[in-house]
Amino acid sequence: MEEKQTAGAHKLTITGRRSGTITGVADVLSFDVGEIILETELGMLTIKGQELHVNRLTLEQGEVDIDGKIDSLVYSGSAGSKGKESFLGRLFK
Fold first, then answer.
1. Rounded to an integer, what distance in angstroms lies between the CA atom of residue 86 and that of residue 81?
2. Is the pLDDT confidence value at 3 over 70?
């Protein structure tokens, strides 16, 4: 059965704190081995951990696969604030 993605759909699946799949991703703002910052349909998502890697990135479908030791997931902002002000605009206030 094929799963349909609707506008505003966001799904986060973590397996054993070692890998994850995130849908509803609008943009990858930054990533390194310690932190990945994503812009999602529900706001900014910061993933912190160790040895983090972005394995697959498909922005057309809004999907990202990651692996590594995942220590924390933190949302900031809200879905309603998306698009009102850019990340760089907020950064250089």
1. 10
2. no
Distance CA 44, CA 65 (A): 16
d(CA 29, CA 82): 14
Nearest to 11 by CA among 40, 51, 37, 36: 40
The span from the CA of 60 to the CA of 67, in Å, is 21
How far is 53 from 89, CA to CA, in rounded Å? 27
Distance from C-alpha of 48 to C-alpha of 70, rounded to nearest angstrom = 6
Q: Mind listing the pLDDT tens digit for each residue in 43-52?
A: 999 999 999 9
Contact in structure between 42 and 77 (CB atoms under 8 Å): no
φ/ψ (deg, to 5) at 60 = -60, -35
